[in-house]
Amino acid sequence: MPATTPRPGTRVDGRTARSERTRNAIVEAHVALILDGDLRPTADRIAKQAGVSLRALWSHFADMEALFTASGERILQQRDEAHQPIPTDLPLTARIDAYCHQRARMLEQVAPAAKASSLKEPFSPALQSYRRSHTDRVRTELAELFAREIDDDESLLAALTAVSMWPTWGTLRDAMGMDPKAARAVLTRAVTALLTAPRG
Exposure pattern of 145-175 as b/e (b: 16+ CB <10 Å)? Predict the structure, then answer.
């Protein structure tokens, strides 16, 4: 009995699946290298980490900007998966404590990626876009979690967002040499002060 000839659709689907696996491996390799402290991984190192050829890398990504775009999406996805919503009906001090603990943990997790991005962001529209997207997410979280305290005070919301972002955390951890616990205490104090200050 003659062998069954694979249907064309089967071959195409298999090829598509292999292509998607290769693409995912490249993105995962790029992110893994950055998170391991390689802040400027070359295409050679990314391909080696992914177990693919340079030709395969460039066949899936037109340039490093395209790879930054895909990796930025992956890091935002990981951030969303790690995020735990905080109940908005908790007392203010409990909300502040929960927010600052989670924010400190997430800032520590993204520290290598944030440092890597800062090296290329001025020249990368993709990285600039992801910074804006991440800032918007933090701003939205603050607006929802502390809605009663913020009300319509846009400057208060902006101040809370600014102290919650990587540049502030990086200053505390790197420039000032604080450990995560001390840096979190500063973040908690700043958020508390902003939310409990008299409204003029």
Answer: bbeebbeeeeebbebbbebbbbebbbebbee
CA 149-152-157 angle, to 5 degrees, is 70
Residue holding tokens 């997790």? 109
CB-based contacts of 19: which residues, under 8 Å, 6+ apart?
60
Q: What is the pLDDT of residue 5?
A: 52
- The amino acid present at 26, given as its one-letter code, is I
Distance, in Å, from the CA atom of 86 to the CA atom of 179, rounded to the nearest integer, reads 25
Four-residue CA torsion sign, 145, 150, 193, 173:
positive
pLDDT by 10-residue block (mean), the chain, 200 residues:
51 77 93 86 93 93 87 80 90 98 92 83 84 91 97 97 96 97 98 91
Task: Find the angle CA(79)-CA(80)-CA(82) to the nearest 5 degrees.
Answer: 65
Q: Which domains does the chain have, with CATH numbers?
A: 1-61 (1.10.10), 63-200 (1.10.357)
CA-to-CA distance for 200 and 28, rounded, in angstroms? 49
> What is the pTM assigned to this prediction?
0.76
- For residues 96 and 192, the answer to whether their CB atoms sit within 8 Å is yes
